[in-house]
Amino acid sequence: MQLTDTARRFIVHWGxxxxxxxxxxxxxxxHALLYFHGRPLNAEDIADTLSxxxxxxxxxxxxxxxxxxxxxxxxxxxxxxxxxxSSDVWELFRTIVRExxxxxxxxxxxxxxxxxxxxxxxxxxADTQDRVRETLRFMESLGAWADEMLxxxxxxxxxxxKLGASVQRLxx
Length: 172
Hints:
The protein is mainly α. It is 72% helix and 8% strand.
């Protein structure tokens, strides 16, 4: 498959942004290709289009599947697996936020709770205890807020975002 200049720029940029976010560049580029293309592709087509090794594509697709960003589908008359991603940007956003929260944010909150509840915590300096407790309160509040936002429909979430921008202008 030949990429247009627009597609190439989108995919390269998404790969660079993925690297900045701590995601493998090829993983990000594959997701960008599937999103931009909008139709299922098999691993061979992905490897050829992006000029990357087939093994790299397989590993990247597994990672995308583990994140819930890519799913396997099939094409009538073709035995190969095809891969697709959602074309709904809100669904993708919610999936990424939910996964990052579960993988990165929630373990930190759990650790802070364990530290505060632990027998050695009271031996720390009072100002250290205050900072850790305040961090825990912040993390719990932000986590609860994120959970509530993830429960909202895309339409409602968009309204909340717009309302938030309006409130910010009012407060300033």
